[in-house]
Predict the 3D structure of the following.
Amino acid sequence: MSWRIRERAPGQGRGGAAGAFAAVCLCWSAGAAAHSASDAYLDLTVTRGGEQGGSLVHGQWDIALRDLDFVLDLDDDGDGRLTWREVRRHREDIARYAFAHLAVAGGPEHSCSLKPGIQEIDAHADGAYAVLFFDVHCKRAPQRLSLDYGLFFGIDPSHRAIVVLHDGEETSTALLSPQNGRIEVPL
């Protein structure tokens, strides 16, 4: 697993000019972000027709570093600021924790496996985020895709995940919460 800092042109994507700042310096102050809501962003893109007619889902999961720091204690020197070195040192802990709280399936007749990919850092308007890329491989194309999500739900009842699913020309969105951590989407 490797890390990259995502580079964006000013005004491009969610991070905008803040994304360019993240490419120069990754520093985060716990006090400055203490009042932000706990959100994560999950972007899924379905492709079909791979080997033996199966399906592949490409995923991008943006998780606030302030939330990950709360559960994984990423700030090794305790100075209230996360550095690139500290986050990089904990990248496997981040992946292990995050992927223990996410399951994607195609139904009982369609086995799927989740494979983590690279990790990056991105800046959003409310702070720095770990960006985890992953692929979900399904042996046969499922009729439905189910997503079980539970990141931070056990410790933060205000946590929400915003999910966007791209399937050909169709785009669906969902909001996941502790009261609604599972969705099923027809494909």
About this structure: The chain has one domain: 3-10+18-186. The beta strands are 3-5, 39-48, 55-64, 102-105, 112-124, 127-138, 144-149, 160-167, 170-176, 182-186.
